[in-house]
Amino acid sequence: MSKYDAMAYDLRDDVLKIIESGGGGHIGGDMSVMEVLVSLYFCEMNVSPAKQDDPDRDRFVMSKGHSVEALYAVLAKKGFLDINEVIEKFSKFGSEYIGHPNNHLAGIEMNSGSLGHGLPVSVGMALAGKMDHRSYRVYTVLGDGELAEGSNWEAAMAAHQYKLDNLCAVIDRNRLQISGSTEDVMGEDDLHERFRSFGWHVIDVADGNSIDQLNAAFTEARTVSGQPTVLIANTVKGKGSAVMENKASWHHHMPTAEEFAAIRADFAKRKEAF
Question: What is the third-level CATH fold of 2-272?
Fold first, then answer.
């Protein structure tokens, strides 16, 4: 799956351009979640600009909406947005390209970013699909720090209660949040066992930055009947450059000119491996 791995690094570079132009962004989480988004949009989901009004299109909710720069880059690559316009207008006064997903833009189903809301809304979308006898699936990506929000666990119970096998959640398990380690802020113990106890089918993705492993997990999720599925994607915060990797301070750090140059050089080297 090397072409998609390489694509992820091209899109990381687009994220750098977006952040550089806008003067800020949540760079660490953008990088950890990139392969998840590439796998979803280019290998898994039934979505395209031509299907924006198709009632059977798959739905996606970026619950960890602060990583919107990665989503904008992927949506542009998929043809929903113009990447040059995103770069030019991101975070500018009056722009629709704001720092969290904005459903006035093509390809975005809901405004998100107030943490703990994405999974509950996704449960509603999935339940509506069941009630309307639609074939679509619903996908949502949550941050691991976000799981401290209690609304997620109410939603998890509801998803089990209504047997929402058309719902697939992905946890971006990079183990870091704005104030440090997730385990220091609000320990999550064994997430696999926790979701299993809530009645979910749980898939551990050992390398959540591997397109092949993610694709295999999404394929498995489609075979599950009678219960929702969650992928626990073990990712690396700031993935792609030693300048950023596994550093909580890069949650929303604005790189210096020297750091931008070093990060781009790291991206180029890693892309060569594919």
Answer: Rossmann fold (3.40.50)
Share of the chain above pLDDT 90, in %: 81
Please state whether beta strands 229-234 and 201-205 pair in parallel, antiparallel, or not at all (unpaired).
parallel
- Rounded CA gap, 164 and 260, in Å? 43
- Long-range own/partner contacts, residues 158-161 (CB < 8 A, 24 or more apart): 158/120, 158/123, 158/127, 159/119, 159/123, 159/126, 159/199, 159/200, 159/228, 160/198, 160/199, 160/200, 160/227, 160/228
For residue 15, the SS3 value is helix
pLDDT at 26: 87
171 neighbors 203 (Cβ within 8 angstroms) = no
| Strand 176-177, strand 180-181: pairing | antiparallel
| Strand ranges inside 53-188, DSSP E | 59-62, 138-143, 167-173, 176-177, 180-181
pLDDT for 171-190, tens place per residue?
999 776 666 566 765 777 79
* Count of residues in the chain: 274
Q: What is the pLDDT of residues 46-82, one digit of tens each?
A: 999 999 999 999 999 999 988 999 999 999 999 999 9
**Local structure of residue 105 (DSSP, 8 states):** S
Which is nearest to 39 in space by CA: 218, 194, 185?
Answer: 218
Provide the residue type at 258 as one letter. E
Q: Which amino acid is at 152?
A: N
pTM of the model as a whole: 0.95
For the segment 246-266, the average pLDDT, to the nearest whole number, is 89
What are residue 185's phi and psi, to 5 degrees?
Answer: -80, -50
